[in-house]
Amino acid sequence: MTARDSRWVALGAVAGPVLLTLTWFVLGFVSTGYSLWGTRIAPYSAISQPLSGLGLGPTGPVMNAAFIVSGLLIIFGAIGIFRQIPELSRPTRWACTGLLALPGVGSVLDGIFTLESFFLHFVGFALALTTVVGFPVTGLFLRRVPAWRALGTLLIVAGPLTLALTALYFLTFTPTVEGVQTGVAGLTERILVVELQAWYVAMGWLAFRRPRQNQPLAFS
Fold it and tell me: Distance between alpha carbon 2 and the CA centroid of its chain, in Å?
């Protein structure tokens, strides 16, 4: 893969979050509700109910497909981003790619295992939260590259911000059928997800806009 190719692959980090966000936003308006562990939950509320509720019921096939495709795009986007930063050593590019790919893997898991498969679905969600560490670690490395220094600094801040939003979400979340029908956990989850994915969009877009490198890049 040449640097020119990797610029376009890096856009996966933009396309994945945009796809997922548009999907849950639209489906939130058209969902007629869903059944969770034998209990009917209707109407669907974006304020109180989780994104994963859209992975059940009539909207399930579309939402779960969006989880999977978005996750794959993020994984490829992470690869493309760090193939665009030859200033970093190969081991560093490998490490940062792995850290930023984990949430993509989590999204794929969430698309395969719905909310009713609670443990495996939560594993997918937990992989997304590895960004609490992944963002600052990546930011420290990116600060060494002049063109990426500003975004690297922001990524260091993104770790504590993501942690704070995660804490807010869990403070408002009750893992029961009754709990998903009341409160504001749906809203706090959406704030967390949008914040987390916005950093991918920023990285993917910056990688795409960087001057083309003519030489091929390799991780090996």
Answer: 26
